[in-house]
Amino acid sequence: MKTYKVLTINPGSTSTKIALFENETCLYSKNVAHDASELAKYNKISDQLPYRRNMILDLLEEADISLEDVDVFVGRGGGLLACQGGTYLVSDLMYEHARNMQNGVIHPASLGPQLAKDFADQYGKQAMVVNPPDVDELQDLARMTGIKGVNRIIHLHSLNLKETAIRHSKNVLHKKYEETNLIVCHIGGGISVSAHREGKMIDGFDIVMGEGPMAPTRCGSIAVADVLNYMKQNQYTVDDIKPLLTKSGGFVSHLGISDAKELTKRASEGDSYAKMVWNTMIYQIEKCIGSMAAVLHGKVDGILLGGGMVYSEDLVQQIRQTCSFIAPVFAYPGEFEMEAMAAGAIRVLNGEEKLKEYTGKLCWNGFEWDK
Description:
Elements: E1 5-11, E2 15-22, E3 25-33, H1 36-39, H2 49-62, E4 72-75, E5 87-89, H3 92-100, H4 111-123, E6 126-130, H5 158-171, E7 181-187, E8 191-197, E9 200-204, H6 224-234, H7 238-241, H8 250-255, H9 260-268, H10 272-295, E10 302-307, H11 313-323, E11 329-333, H12 337-349
Parallel strand pairs: 1-4, 4-6, 7-10, 10-11
Antiparallel strand pairs: 1-2, 2-3, 5-6, 7-8, 8-9
GO biological process, one term: acetate metabolic process
Catalytic activity: butanoate + ATP = butanoyl phosphate + ADP
Main location: cytoplasm
């Protein structure tokens, strides 16, 4: 097998992760935290590009790593319009969409395609993006709602969800991802629960728009009438309550904390409120897993749990006790994001997967009768 070197770049809200891979072996990795006062100097996220690029170059120089030896640069794919899963070439169009955050989601992940292409252009190599956050492979039945003209889209931890499914299919089931049916969860600061059928993520809960289980900073699914009453009672506007979707809901709303370790510590010390919040979150995850089992018609090869909270034995045990009647439950604590980006590029280089073109058009644009 030919050897390839891949540099992966994952810009986050307060840090930048980079890793250098030689095929599947990680040769170097670094996660650098950014001072909030430094980031505050930039009016727009895209304005941070030179700062983050120079920081990466400084780190690699300190580690005596030459970018001339890198075959592919892979960035986290933020800011893009909804597309099918897979590995994409960072074209000029993708670069521009990432820079403008075309999908309307303001997040530093949009710097990923930009950084990757800047490095690739400088060294005459390719830049890629693997399973960006806006992967949309929903089946049509998952799109319609009870309000005409309001159709579901999806925002999930696509990169980690798909890589977990690919690895489990290969290493445990000894099958291709396209030959399996799986329920895959990412349980961390946000919680994604998704149904994967024969290589497509056909349903899941939109964690940016308020669906799914309660999470450390997210309110999860709540009845519309209850939200309207909450707004009326407190004289809140839409802007007042929108942070509950991703920043101030869940653990934060109840107890003012977002750290799962702190929450479980309080619960273990006899705090009944903390214990109820923890168990309620797990209960809601279990309900969501059950609904995805129905989506897959009960034909489930495994339930896969990934993300930081999966380090909790209590969480895994509770889900296993409740959901094992559906399929075996497997725990993959942490995440494979950096590995996933490298693996996607290597699959393309090895000819196992076709490199896709980003069209800049929504992969789904409404039902035919709405056009």
